[in-house]
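4.2 Preliminary Data

To establish feasibility before requesting continued support, the project team ran the inverse folding procedure on a target of 161 residues. The structure was first converted into the token representation described in Section 3, and no sequence information of any kind was made available to the design step. The complete token record follows.
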């Protein structure tokens, strides 16, 4: 167990050089919900500092485009106390922000389509020394709790559309 600067306990390994261990999370984060908090809290527990890459709208091609603009999604993630820094993703080369942040561990979301082994291979090819791990999912804790942006939008359309 180590300790974050704010005193929160983490299960992160200590770095031998005493530098803060940097964890990296990423995603779209359109219309924040408790599933996002669960992911970011779990990712933060892997390090002393949590950085988040927020996907550019143009790069969200595997599901409907986000409703909120890039900058708004980045600013909302940055405002969460568990997050040390939120970065807008690069328009073309995903390794540009990764190189800048220089993470010790990349934490993938429970349902993200990225494959751990392919990312680890790509990182090694880029000469970036980072572990890759995956967070757990969070199920609703009570009736009607909304843990997906898509579900929030569906309910919004059903109730207000
Ligand atoms: C290591 C890593 C780096 C990424 N860097 C960027 C980036 O620079 N720009 C970007 O638009 N998306 C980037 N992405 C992609 C998105 O953040 C996100 O993974 C993808 O859109 C899936 O998002 P979702 O979980 O919200 O569905 C990166 C993903 C990974 C795994
Ligand atoms: N219920 C949840 N439990 C744990 N992690 C979650 C949950 N919902 C989203 N996440 C994680 O948050 C990150 C960003 O997710 P994303 O912005 O795609 O949210 P989403 O609500 O799943 O979106 P959509 O409903 O549009 O697919 C991803 O890593 C995703 O795995």
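Position-by-position output of the design step:
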């Amino acid at each position: 167990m180590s300790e974050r600067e704010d005193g929160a306990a983490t299960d992160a390994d200590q770095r031998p050089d005493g530098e803060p261990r940097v964890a990296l999370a990423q995603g779209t984060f359109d219309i924040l919900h408790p599933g996002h908090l669960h992911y970011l809290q779990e990712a933060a527990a892997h390090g002393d500092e949590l950085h988040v890459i927020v996907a550019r709208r143009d790069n969200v091609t595997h599901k409907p485009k986000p409703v909120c603009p890039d900058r708004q999604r980045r600013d909302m993630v940055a405002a969460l106390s568990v997050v040390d820094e939120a970065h807008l993703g690069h328009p073309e080369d995903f390794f540009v922000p990764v190189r800048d942040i220089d993470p010790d561990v990349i934490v993938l979301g429970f349902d993200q389509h990225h494959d751990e082994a392919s990312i680890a291979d790509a990182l090694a090819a880029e000469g970036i020394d980072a572990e890759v791990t995956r967070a757990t999912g969070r199920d609703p804790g009570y009736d009607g709790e909304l843990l997906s942006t898509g579900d929030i939008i569906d309910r919004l359309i059903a109730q207000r559309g």
